[in-house]
Amino acid sequence: MTIEPVATPQERMGIIQGDITKLTVEAIVNAAKSSLLGGGGVDGAIHQAAGEDLLFECQQLNGCPTGEARITDGYLLPAKYIIHTVGPTWRGGRSSEPELLASCYRESLALAKMYGIETIAFPAISCGSYGYPIELAAKVALETVASVLEHEPSILGVSFVCFDDDDYDIYVEAFGML
Ligand code: APR
After folding, report:
1. CATH code of the domain in which 150 resides
2. Distance between CA 166 and CA 140 in Å, rounded?
3. Does the pLDDT value for residue 77 go beyond 80?
């Protein structure tokens, strides 16, 4: 009998371009606001695609502080679960933004592990209305996830979903620097 080695973090990470609400993965991550009651951007797209039962479940959660994560059902989405995390608003980089952003990725992966989720997709948390420069955020996202996967063999696939071409190119470049 041969024992297959666990794939490296980089082998379990991928960058794709598209709409996260369409993905067939076990969990997608939402870049939410702390009320968890929906908004614009990817949050709005997820609530719209999942249907109004999602809002009802979110109302029971009593919000989520920046840097933490909460999990709900995926309702009408192809994904079974939605992990809602609240990224930091960019204030120039000296207000713990990198630590809080890294915490979003770590907390989301911790919830994934707790629920036995093997495949998960992240949007570029904080890179829209919250104004985090994408070059800096991509580095935090990729490095944080790679370091978690190093010690977490149960998560088999992590996708980083970029909504537009420029963001995709930036992620690919940052991935090459890992
Ligand atoms: N699929 C994948 N990525 C998407 C999608 C989508 N359907 N829609 C938008 N994005 C991308 C944006 O291009 C951006 O790069 O998600 C990234 C995050 O942008 P925002 O959704 O604005 O999230 P964020 O910057 O974290 O701000 C959160 O915005 O809508 C509100 O309720 C939300 O108040 C919260 C804030």
Report:
1. 3.40.220.10
2. 18
3. yes
